[in-house]
Amino acid sequence: MEQVQLDEFKNKLSDLKVEIEKELSSVADKDIGDHVPGEWAAKFPNFGDDNYLDAGSDSPDEVQAYEVNVSITGQLEDYLKKVEAALERIEDGTYGMDIKTGEPISVERLQVNPAAETAIPKP
Question: What is the CATH number of domain 3-112?
Answer without folding.
Answer: 1.20.120.910
